[in-house]
């Protein structure tokens, strides 16, 4: 038995019995989703641990009362956003209380007044609200920028002495979040989408032009690395001849998207351009010609095409500007941008530099979720390629970084994409698929998310589905990274479509050992022994100490038959049997 001072977090779902009676299966499913995607992640990110679970609630212990309350506030704010579209009488809400008190630890559980007071106070919290005890409040005060309402001393059931309690004013936290969001426009590329002009005589195309503009705004807002000027600000300029640099200055936008819609017969033409207002330069333009059968389908298709291209063009422009700066001038966002460019080179030296830059970004801005996420990604790359001295420590830090990112921003598609990637590396394919599906739901037009869905499905033995997703990513971004061809080649190979796999792999200008391995296996399965041997020779040239078993261990096939299929091809090619 051990005693210690701990912050106890008690949470309970509001109206659990009523919600279960109305929709038992749906309630349980949504509750589980909130637990996995939000609550557990937040508790872990704030260094807490769940002590016990009830059907509709939980008790968690934190070493810091500040962390416990920050966790509670963050959960309640994000729960409100997650349930925003749910009818009022079906919303899932929690009451949360935090108490700082003496507890008894035994067999991993906690007992004592510290726990009992938290549990009793929780019933006093409003739905979606947070209550803290007087002892907790004494240690908080100015440490968290929220307001507190003193609700006086409370007589709690089975607690002999009155307990002073304070209600946390979550609106103050929400206001703070908004002000933080406003300051982010200084570190993120800011972009304004002006209303598309209707150049047709057909007034119905006015609705199409406005709908296209709004869809682009909505879809771009899913990219957390862009700061999007609101529709209310940009639609002021609808129907006006504008001076783009002047409008950009008024809106505070670095980049402006403008476009037009023209109908001719049964065809519609959409023209769009992206302007860098600082350099007064057009950095991207395109034109889309479509037959006007289903106007809404065309609107969706063009939106997806534009939105999947814009972020990459903006990032490229930002990188060009960054190259002209001295390293000492780099801010957190710029460090992340430079680190991402280095990461995409897939080279050991570049990865080491990327690690330095991303660590600096985290130091400069500890609450920058995207920086934590990419730190995990860059370390994951080092782990996957063996560019680290201690693989266990590297993957552990990578996992902590991405979990920290999820705790800071659970609605970032990149965060869930990278969580899925880490789960692939560690072999938890069920969890990888869950995070991957969440990433797709958050941003279905993000080519890196879409291509990784194809990769995950391939590892799960659903290669034909994987091929469709990877091809979709290539259509979304015609300027996609070369590695998309590698993903497509592996999916074709896993689907036993060897000729198409070889054609995909041939698109890669500098094949590495992995690609030569798949090429050798594909040619061997086709009975093309001499060509297979040529790729084996390349493997031996690149790595004289090549070990087949070690190579196979880098694969993440969930189905043993798929791994055996690759092994058989490599064995036929002459790489030996393991």
Instruction: State the helical fraction.
Output: 55-70%
Structural class: alpha/beta
| CATH architectural arrangement of the largest domain | 2-Layer Sandwich
- Treating each run of at least 4 consecutive H or I residues as one helix, how many helices? 24
Distance between the termini: 51 Å
Number of strands: 14
Shape descriptor reads: globular
- Beta-strand percentage range: 15-25%
Largest sheet: 8 strands, mixed
In CATH, what is the class of the largest domain? Alpha Beta
What low-confidence regions span 5 or more consecutive residues with pLDDT below 50? Answer: 172-186, 324-329
User: In angstroms, what is the radius of gyration?
Assistant: 27 Å
Q: What is the overall pLDDT average?
A: 84
Describe this structure as you would to a colleague.
It contains 24 helices and 14 strands. It is an alpha/beta fold and 578 residues long. Strands 1, 2, 3, 4, 5, 6, 7 and 8 form an 8-stranded mixed sheet that branches. Helix 11 packs antiparallel against helix 12. It is globular and about 85 Å long. About 4% of the residues have low confidence.
What labels describe this entry?
eight-stranded mixed β-sheet, 3 domains, Alpha-Beta Plaits, Rossmann fold, 24 helices, alpha/beta, Serine Threonine Protein Phosphatase 5, Tetratricopeptide repeat, 578 residues, single chain
């Amino acid at each position: 038995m051990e005693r210690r001072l701990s912050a106890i977090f008690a949470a309970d779902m509001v109206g659990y019995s009523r919600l279960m009676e109305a929709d038992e299966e749906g309630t349980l499913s949504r509750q589980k989703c909130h637990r996995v995607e939000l609550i557990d992640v937040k508790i872990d990110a704030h260094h807490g641990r769940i002590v016990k679970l009830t059907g509709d609630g939980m008790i968690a212990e934190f070493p810091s009362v500040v962390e416990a309350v920050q966790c509670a506030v963050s959960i309640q704010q994000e729960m409100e956003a997650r349930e925003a579209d749910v009818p009022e009488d079906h919303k899932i809400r929690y009451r949360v209380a935090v108490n700082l008190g003496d507890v008894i630890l035994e067999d991993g559980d906690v007992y004592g007044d510290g726990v009992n007071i938290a549990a009793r106070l929780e019933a006093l919290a409003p739905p979606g609200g947070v209550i803290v005890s007087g002892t907790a409040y004494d240690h908080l005060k100015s440490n968290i920028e929220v307001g507190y309402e003193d609700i006086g001393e409370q007589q709690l059931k089975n607690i002999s002495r009155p307990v002073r309690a304070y209600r946390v004013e979550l609106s103050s936290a929400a206001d703070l979040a908004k002000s933080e969001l406003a300051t982010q426009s200084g570190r993120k590329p800011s972009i304004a989408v002006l209303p598309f002009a209707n150049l047709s005589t057909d007034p119905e195309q006015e609705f199409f032009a406005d709908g296209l503009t709004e869809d682009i705004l909505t879809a771009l807002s899913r990219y957390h690395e862009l700061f999007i000027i609101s529709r209310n600000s940009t639609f002021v300029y609808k129907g006006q001849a504008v001076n783009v640099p002047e409008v950009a200055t008024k809106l505070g936008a670095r980049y402006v998207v403008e476009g037009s819609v023209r109908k001719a017969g049964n065809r519609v033409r959409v023209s769009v351009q992206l302007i860098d207002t600082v350099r007064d330069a057009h950095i991207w333009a395109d034109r889309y010609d479509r037959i006007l059968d289903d106007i809404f389908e065309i609107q969706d298709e063009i939106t997806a095409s534009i939105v999947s291209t814009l972020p990459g063009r903006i990032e490229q422009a930002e990188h060009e500007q960054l190259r002209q700066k001295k390293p000492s001038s780099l801010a957190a966002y710029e460090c992340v941008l430079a680190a991402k460019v280095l990461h995409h080179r897939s080279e050991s030296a570049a990865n080491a530099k990327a690690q330095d830059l991303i660590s600096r970004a985290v130091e400069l801005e500890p609450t920058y979720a995207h920086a934590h996420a990419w730190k995990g990604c860059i370390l994951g790359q080092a782990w996957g390629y063996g560019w680290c001295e201690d693989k266990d420590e590297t993957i552990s830090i990578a996992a902590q970084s991405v979990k920290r990112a999820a705790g800071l921003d659970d609605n970032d598609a990149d965060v869930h994409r990278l969580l899925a990637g880490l789960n692939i590396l560690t072999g938890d394919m069920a969890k990888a698929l869950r995070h991957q599906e969440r990433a797709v739901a958050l941003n279905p037009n993000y080519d890196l998310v879409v291509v990784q869905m194809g990769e995950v499905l391939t590892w799960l033995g659903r290669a034909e589905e994987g091929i469709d997703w990877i091809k979709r990513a290539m259509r979304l971004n015609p300027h996609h990274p070369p590695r998309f061809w590698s993903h497509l080649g592996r999916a074709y190979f896993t689907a036993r479509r060897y000729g198409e796999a070889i054609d995909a792999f041939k698109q890669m200008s500098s094949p590495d050992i992995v690609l030569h391995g798949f090429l050798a296996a594909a040619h061997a399965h086709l009975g093309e022994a001499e060509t297979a041997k040529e790729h084996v020779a390349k493997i031996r040239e690149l790595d004289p100490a090549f070990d087949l078993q070690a190579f196979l261990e880098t694969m993440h096939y969930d189905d043993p038959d798929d791994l055996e299929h690759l092994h058989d091809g490599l064995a036929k090619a002459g790489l030996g049997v393991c």
